Amino acid sequence: MPELDIRDLPPIERHPQIMEVFDSMDSGEKLTLINDHDPKPLFYEMKAEKPAFDDEGYELTQEGPERFVATFPKQ
Description:
It is a single chain. This protein is an alpha+beta fold. It has a single domain, classed as Translation Initiation Factor IF3 (2-Layer Sandwich), CATH 3.30.110. It has helices spanning 11-24, 40-49; strands at residues 3-5, 30-35, 59-64, 67-73. Strands 1-2-4-3 form a four-stranded mixed sheet, with helices on one face. It is globular and about 30 Å long. The two termini are 14 Å apart. The mean pLDDT is 97.
């Protein structure tokens, strides 16, 4: 399953790179995203724009003040 750590990417590059990786995934795969903040805006963007995003399978864990690990499953 793909894992993407975007903490060192400039903010303007983050969502396009995430979308590119998600689009390249096969159905049933999950993208693990490591971010420096809660990716709630990305969750809503994916829910609105990516019909293959399984929002019910979304998971988020905060592992520290600047480490959030989110799982974005693809139907």
